[in-house]
Amino acid sequence: MNNDLFVKPPDQPDESWETTVREIARDFAYPPTPDIVQQTSQQLVRSRRTVPGALKWAVAIVLALIIVVISVPEARAFVTEIIRIGAIQIFVGQPTPTSIPTALPAATRTATDVQPTSINISSVFEMPNETTFEDAVQRLKSPIQLPTYPDNIGQPDHVYVQDFGQGVLVTLVWLVPGEPDRVWLSLDILNDRFVANKFIDNDGQYHNVQVNNTPAQWITGLHEIGFFGNRTQIFRKVNGTVLIWLVGQDGKLTYRLEGTSSEEEAIRIAESLQDSGTP
CA–CA separation, 64 vs 62, rounded Å? Predict the structure, then answer.
């Protein structure tokens, strides 16, 4: 897995980047590629070479999104930084009325492409495919670590799984005690074959933190997250606190905790995780 967390667009044109991306995009009908830093080129090449063929469509979405973001003038003005934490890439930009597109423009698709199913939700309650915790463990094919802090947190009240073959997203939801319509905490777990993007403004609402001495990101305020897999896209507006970090010695699982009252509380919950099931 690539451990490079920070990638910034170049200040000057870079012809080698343009040539490399054109070679990567040969199998896909992308618009002409713009200039971008050589490090991003290497990251994209490595990603394409190591991802199995079944995930080529998901990789195409990420490549196309990055290219579209940088090639569209309004979006290019928006993006100032790309942060990578495991399976989640965070696009950071200057506050502007023009936001990054949440669906690929027609120019990025060929006549033979099948339009992916796009699902827009406003709450984790609207996530599709509710199931049991035991089923989620089996489909993730990995133990799921659950928080042991606070002491009364217990098992999640709702469990959702998005299974796209090799890419799996598990969403766990805890409710406010005595209020079945209010979410207390939600925890997304993504394996390393899944793709997710966040879009946030560069207004000081994010910064680096650590969870168990590993890099993590703390994000607050209104932003958007998109989950991409197979031929389904799920987008959700988020207005709250989010902690993103890697779990396990190999870092193959990305955890995303949403809804805590403070950064300190989120880190304490994250560091309390213990294995609660085996595949």
Answer: 5
Beta-strand relationship, 195-201 and 88-93: parallel
pTM over 0.85: no
Catalogue the long-range contacts made by 152-161 (C-beta closer than 8 Å, 24 or more residues apart).
153/185, 153/269, 155/276, 156/187, 158/124, 158/125, 158/130, 159/130, 159/131, 159/132, 159/133, 159/135, 160/124, 160/127, 160/128, 160/129, 160/130, 160/131, 161/129, 161/131, 161/135, 161/136
Contact 47, 59 (CB under 8 A): yes
Total Cβ atoms within 10 A of residue 182:
10
Q: Give residue-wise pLDDT tens across range 173-186.
A: 999 999 999 999 99
CA angle 59, 61, 66 (to 5 degrees): 100
Any idea which residue has 């698709």 for tokens?
109
What sign results for the dihedral spanned by CA atoms 13, 15, 16, 20?
positive
At 105-154, the pLDDT tens digits run 333 344 445 677 889 999 999 999 999 999 999 999 999 999 999 998 99
Going from N- to C-terminal start, the domains of the chain cover 1-71, 117-194+201-279
**CA-based diameter of the chain, in Å?**
60
Among 127, 69, 137, residue whose Cα is nearest residue 258: 127
Q: Which residues contact 6 (CB under 8 A, 6 or more apart)?
A: 81, 82, 83
pLDDT band at 63 (very low <50, low <70, confident <90, very high): low
